Amino acid sequence: MSRQQRRTPGKSSAKAAPPQRDQKPEALCTAALRLLQAGQPDDAEAACRQALTLDSGHANALHAMGRVCLALGRQQLAVEWFARAITQDPTVADYFSDLGESLQRCDRFDEAIRVYDRALQIKPDVLESWLQLGSLLRRQGRFAEAAQAFDRALQLAPENAGLWYQLGEVLKAQDRRDEAVLAYEQVLKFQPAHIEAANSAGLLRFEAEHYSEAIGHFDLSLRQQADQAGVLCLKGISLRRLRRYQEAFASGERAHALAPHDPDIANSLGCILQNLGHHDDAIAAFDKAIALRPAFAEFHNHRGTSLAELHRFDEAFASFDRAIALKPDLADAHWNAALFRLLVGDFAVGWAAREWGRKCRAVGFVERSFDAPLWLADAPLAGKTILLHSDEGLGDTIHFSRYATMVAEQGARVLLEVDAVLQPLLADIAGVAACLKRGLDPLPPADFHCPLSSLPLAFATQLETIPAAPSYLPAPAQDRLQRWVDRLGPRDGLRVGLVWSGNPAHLNDHNRSLPFERLAPVLDLDARFVSLQKDMRPSDRAAFSAHPAILDLTADLGDFVDTAALISCLDLVLTVDTSVAHLAAALGKPTWIMLPYTPDYRWLLGRDDSPWYPSVRLFRQDDSCDYTPVVARIRAALSAELAAFAR
């Protein structure tokens, strides 16, 4: 009979026989336990008292009386009886285990821990004692010791799902997340329907940004109970962060249907709709979240973004302002407002607010610390050395590197530090004393530093003061140019470079890039098309192979200088908003850029030219957010260029 069975009075159809009066103490103890098991605690108590009358120091009788008191709810008396039994015989593990249980019921947890520990010293292979010890240690916040106790228990019962779950919980409490997930996965191995383990593992993987694994665990849980709104919401967020937006919408919509009054779930659905470009529906979801929790700043920030994407800028700025009023240090709201301020041409507010992006986790600024102070035009530079360092993407670095010349004109010795792939391209920009490879070249001493993207703020750049030289990158060396002249052969038509997709990791890639096949209406024109598209996506390869006349030299483009040299041999570059657009425009090459309805801030709104690049022509989506009419306008414009070229 197990200890648990002995501890719990059972139900019997007939009363157990009372003990005979001439029995010895040990027989009376056995009878008492039998009566207790039969659900007759009063008769069991009588048997114990009869045994103790015969031998007041009989250890088993004292222990049996403690068991009776536990069954009758007399916890403090049980403690006293078990203690007396231990005094008579301190070598019996069960005495200590039962004392531990009674102390636990009296909320004397630290004492109970010490008693269970003693029981296990005497008899270390008792599973229930390890379980009780681990549970008490967990309750007292002694998680490392609890983990050790559950580990020992699992040595005795390695397929016990409950023990694995307890271990997972204490590992999670110690922030040992990967180990906790492994423990939860063991739970699911032995008990696949354990919803709590699946949810806990999913949440830990979600928090660690391992979204695919999180989805797998959430799916296990949802197969057991499909109507868990919170789990569906987390699954939707996970899918959204993997950019699987349609699947995310299905989960988010279901979660919202199950919990229509949960503001967080409404907000999550709004964010998914936002990613899908369904901004009117997103605003409705954000409005519902705000109605349920009006003072939550993040909801107003998200609402502002969708309003701005619809070009309802006054309402958007009101939402951002409300978010900031509710939470003045909400960096995301400052950052979003800044980008849209710049987009509408409000540089005076936009450049300063854009600095909040350095506090936004999702923005991806390269943040550094330097001994030299930050320079924002607040100190003279004559005779000083300043380090200008790239802090965003490759296109941004090319874009902002124009300011290096302006800094040098202040009398400074300019050190320019950029990504290694850009160093050969930018090394000879006017005014740069040395161009360094970030993370590879040691940094010389400097008096000041400034991130490249902060230079427009430092120079208080306005629309009319944008430094917009026709070209500011040095021309590629003649030997580099000649290589491509030879590869391109005789000039037998207008040479047009093509780029149709950017970095797939970019948060706005689904709006900036387009499938190659969308360019088909342009490709039947009588131009000499040259692909500049590095890292072609697998989904584009079949459509591209159907146009063998397009010259693809990208396998031979070793660096940005190679690309610059090839671009210099072309007549025009047709591109989406990516680093090649900045490269071609900075070289002064005629550059046609296809833009989404709400583009990057530097392209502004309502114009087909760029104040940043004199050679750029912009082709914008209208509010249909469709590239089809954009490509049609490009076809017409390119037809005119071809006609002029033929003349």
Commentary on this structure:
The protein is of the alpha/beta class. Strands 7-6-5-8-9-10 form a 6-stranded parallel β-sheet, sandwiched between helices. A 4-stranded parallel β-sheet has the order 3-2-1-4. Helix 24 (423-426) links the parallel strand 2 and strand 3 (432-437). The protein is elongated and about 125 Å long. The model is unreliable at 1-14 (pLDDT under 50).
Mind sketching the topology for me?
Blueprint: H1 3-7, H2 25-37, H3 41-54, H4 59-71, H5 75-88, H6 93-105, H7 109-122, H8 127-139, H9 143-156, H10 161-173, H11 177-190, H12 195-207, H13 211-224, H14 229-241, H15 245-258, H16 263-275, H17 279-292, H18 297-309, H19 313-326, H20 331-343, H21 347-354, E1 385-389, H22 394-400, H23 403-408, E2 413-418, H24 423-426, E3 432-437, E4 448-451, H25 455-458, H26 478-488, E5 495-499, H27 509-512, H28 520-523, E6 528-531, H29 538-545, E7 551-552, H30 560-568, E8 572-576, H31 579-586, E9 591-595, E10 616-620, H32 628-646
Parallel strand pairs: 1-2, 1-4, 2-3, 5-6, 5-8, 6-7, 8-9, 9-10
What would a concise description of this structure say?
The chain contains 32 helices and ten strands. Helix 24 (423-426) links the parallel strand 2 (413-418) and strand 3.
